[in-house]
Amino acid sequence: MALIESVPNFSEGRNRAKVEAIAEAMRMEGVYLLDRHMDADHNRSVITLAGSREALMEAVLRGIGKAADLIDLTRHRGVHPRIGATDVVPFVPIEGVTLEDCAQMARQVGAEVWRRYRIPVYLYESAATRPDRVRLENVRRGQFEGLRDEIATNPERLPDFGEPRVHPTAGATVIGARKFLVAYNIFLNTSDVEIARKIARTVRFSSGGLPFVKAMGLPVRGLAQVSMNLTDTDQTPIARVFELVKSEAARYGVAVLSSEIIGLVPKKALEDAAGSSLQLENFDSSVILENRLAAARAHVEPAS
Amino acid sequence: MALIESVPNFSEGRNRAKVEAIAEAMRMEGVYLLDRHMDADHNRSVITLAGSREALMEAVLRGIGKAADLIDLTRHRGVHPRIGATDVVPFVPIEGVTLEDCAQMARQVGAEVWRRYRIPVYLYESAATRPDRVRLENVRRGQFEGLRDEIATNPERLPDFGEPRVHPTAGATVIGARKFLVAYNIFLNTSDVEIARKIARTVRFSSGGLPFVKAMGLPVRGLAQVSMNLTDTDQTPIARVFELVKSEAARYGVAVLSSEIIGLVPKKALEDAAGSSLQLENFDSSVILENRLAAARAHVEPAS
Known about the structure:
homodimer; 304 residues; alpha+beta; Formiminotransferase-cyclodeaminase, Chain B, domain 1; Alpha-Beta Plaits; 2 domains; seven-stranded mixed β-sheet; four-stranded antiparallel β-sheet; 9 helices; 35% helix
């Protein structure tokens, strides 16, 4: 069976009842609610769903509708950039589907978001219709307030679906398809966010750092945080990112306090981190008891 | 469903056809053959099985019978200590069973080994009937040849099942129950095995080191190796052992070259290593996509 993940980001991270209501609206047969993360500083929630194609698309559409009912962007403040009540919705292939299948889902949902809710939609990453829309940062430039001013007059900001005006309270939504992304943050033992920003610049690909790493420095819980998206942990493993941040931090006389994974991480990414940190020779996941057992069972019971 | 692992050790590590025949004898419904490791220096094979209670006991019994047919201990030479054609058989709880359940299996199989094959059996570890039989080294003292001479005259060597005489060619077998054990070796970038021995003494519990760690220094592939058994990776995680060996090695001006896992490792032990090396906050295995998905599916489809 095809299994797709979707991780809608909603611009509400403080009012638990509203986030609950949005999650509840997305509950339906064939869709699993895997994770829910509220961040008060970001004033943003990230909900992780997985499911079959049709059910997942409908669940996401209902969530976007509920968010438009409950969130008013004209009153929204938070440290994380955003342009919409439902800010961004990626579709991610997990099992039995391609990235292009997910891009097709993004297009279908995008058209429907405009039709049902009159919220304009931009397509990004693998669903992008123009090279300058591949990167979310570009699409989100100026945030809600900037887009609101510019959308009607700047042809570059014409949405992929809908008319060139933001929804008055729900803004616009960015929908797309991408590979599995690990949201990984590292806290430093300093409140000096400038150090986190400098480290972010060294680490991220866009300013000459590691491939498949996006990074920014943020103040979180009174600490400097290097906030990252790892877009391909096969090519740039988590352990390598961690070691680079740690050694860069040391250059500023600062230490890593802790790190956190926001949302979920694929099993293989963590296994690779263990293999790397323990310097395991010829490590592969077949040395793991449970994997060996699953393989043995699959081999013995092919039709179950 | 209850799932138990068993790791019978057979005293044949050179003749592939014989090891194949023993493995083949253990093949039956409800039993998975997870791993097979032949060592010519040790002249010993280690076969890892998992299965349900009754099927696994019968499989192990058949393997012991086949080994008695094929292996003649009076002609066996190897660097690893042994007292029987089937030398040692641990039962290990994996899912839905306790250590005491496994001890019960050991007793039942022990009685049956004597009944079917007239091979005397000693119980060890959690199935031991006397404190001096908890440790395998004690039970195996003097090896096959020493036991053959002593068994009838020394009351301390009276078997737990059977009469006080070894089987003329198959010797005696040690059967018991223990927790999952991780065989973990660390290579140093030196050929000076004395350094590995010193580190082993610092690391292992018996000389004042970490709980649940057994260690010795060995020369392997021209390198000094700290060869370890980790008998409880929940209490003493692999990452802690690795870090201690690494920092002790540095005291001798030596570095860790690599490490290796022999056989299998439980998923949780590796996940913990990743969490620890990445300094992950509040890490637990539920952040892993595949685990979350399995849990969500089990919750939604309880009767499948």
